[in-house]
Structure formats: structure tokens, C-alpha cells
Amino acid sequence: MKPYTLRLLAVFGALTVGLSAAPLTEATSVYAKADAASTVLATLKAGTEPAVTVDGATIPAGWTAVTLAGPHEVYAANKDVTKALDVRPGSPYLTEPKAGAPVLALAEKGDQTEITDYRGKWTKFRLSKPVIGYIKTPAKSAAAVPAATKATAAAAPAPAVTAAPLKDAPAPAAPAPATANIGRAAPMGDGGSSALPRLFQGKFASTSHPLRPRRPYEFQLTDDAGSRYAYVDISKLLATEQLNKYVDRTVVVYGTARSVPGSTEMVIVAESLQLR
User: How many other C-beta atoms lie within 10 A of the C-beta of residue 250?
Assistant: First the structure.
């Protein structure tokens, strides 16, 4: 490696260390891209020491890549959720429940996720995974490197040892989770479960229709467009419950979601039902 390149690496290392150790002097937005017009992922409070990282891409001048540990509230399309209630690898985690919403990250095998809600055609997850964001480099960060250090770096002769190219330097490893199953849906014999009862909202509708085959469950929840996103298993409800009063009305179901064996459908085992 040329001596000039080594000197640049030395200066870069000094700047990076100085920034990671210097607390922010004001509240700072973390963006999804190195662009102030992109989505704001989080806001770091004054006094926070940002976790500087290397994302392997070229970052515009005036920006710094940082790691956000999470957890993060994200959405995935129901079609991208497997029977085990995991998000298929390669599918996008979106910041909002709508097509075209900003992508926070892409799903990877082994991601630690927990279902927290359903929004029609979208499933909301709590994602326990570090993601990379970008902050505008504080003006004082470069000044934090003493002038003497800069002069020394510029005048220092090339070291005798050969340093590895920057592109081969490994990215900082993400901290290992305490256990392998934190935040994941507990596996069951029928393909998976969200483990704990939750609240689900939608229009309560009958699945019976004279021109359609009989469905595995008598009732379902539909979104605003009338599309089913989950069946409703009413076997745990009181026999005296008058279900007809809920039909074609918006309800809140408290229950546990699981996959329907042998299909890509989802069913909510209802424990209570009330009008919205």
C-alpha cells in the first residue's frame, strides 16, 4: 500500500474514533439514507454518543453511518408472512402499512420478530435487529481531532508494516442476542403461533355463501376493501353469545393468531369479541 493511502487511513481512523466518542451537542435526526429528504428513522437526544459504523457503501461528505440497535416497529405485507408467522427472507420491512412506504431493512433468516398487530393486508412486527441509519456529521467532529494530530499524520513517514486495504476490513459484528428465541413466535404443530393473545380489528363477516364451497370457519375478519385477512375461530366464546349482532360491523377481537393447517390462511382463536 502506498504511504499516502496509509496516511489517509490514519486520519480516517482518528476522525471515526473522535466522532464515536463525542456526545451530540443537540438533538439529531437519523435518516434512512444519507439524504435529508429521506425518512427519519429516529431522533438521538443531545448527549447521545452515536454508534458509528461502516456500511460498505460510499457515503456523501457531511454524513456518517450509525447503528440503531432497536427494537423497531415495522410492517410486512401478509403475503410475505409464512405459516410460521415469520417474514420471508428478502421481503421488505416497511415503516408504514402501505405500498410504497420507506423500507427500513430487508428480512433475513433468523430475524427476531414479534407480531404486535394486524392492519388489514399488513402485519405489524417488533423487530429486534440493528439497522444502519445516517446522521449529518456534526461540524465539531472534525475539529475534535487536535491540529497537532493532523500535522503529525500528514508529516509522518510511511510505517514499516503493510496495512490491509480498507475494503477488506470487516464490519463491526452485531451483538449476539441473549437467547435464540427472543421476540419470535413460538412454534406449534400446526406451523406456528403468535404465542400470546392480542387485539385484532376488522369487519366481522360470515363466510357462508350459497355459491361458494364451505369454508373451514364460519366467520372471518375483512379489511376496508372487503378482503379476508383472517378467519375467526369462535369455539372459545360463550354459547350464549349473539354473534349475529356483530356481522358486517367493525369489531375488536381478542385472541391468538395461528396458521390454518395445509394453507396460507390465518385464523384468530377468539377469546372475546366487542364492537368497535
Answer: 14
Collapsing DSSP to helix, strand or coil, 205 comes out as strand
- How many helices and strands, by DSSP H and E, does the chain display? 3, 14
Which H or E run contains 18?
helix 3-21
- CA 250 and chain centroid, separation: 29
Helix or strand run (H / E) with residue 4? helix 3-21
The pLDDT, as a whole number, for residue 178 is 40
Block residue for cell numbers 384468530? 268
The tens digit of pLDDT for each residue in 30-47 reads 888 888 888 888 888 888
Give the pLDDT band (50/70/90) at residue 93: very high
What domains lie within the chain, and their CATH numbers?
A: 3-69+132-168 (no CATH), 72-129 (no CATH), 198-275 (2.40.50)
Q: In angstroms, rounded to a whole number, what is the distance separating the alpha carbons of residues 210 and 229?
A: 21
Cis-peptide into 71, omega within 30 deg = yes
Categorise residue 226: left if φ over 0, alpha if ψ from -120 to 50, beta otherwise: left
Cell of 29: 435526526
- The pTM (predicted TM-score) of the whole model is 0.45
Please give the DSSP secondary-structure letter assigned to residue 54. -
Report the DSSP pairing between strands 131-136 and 249-259. unpaired
Name 106's bridge partners.
Answer: 92
Contact 193, 185 (CB under 8 A): yes
End-to-end CA distance of the chain: 68
| Residues 237/273, Cβ–Cβ less than 8 Å | yes
Q: What are the cell numbers at 264?
A: 396460507
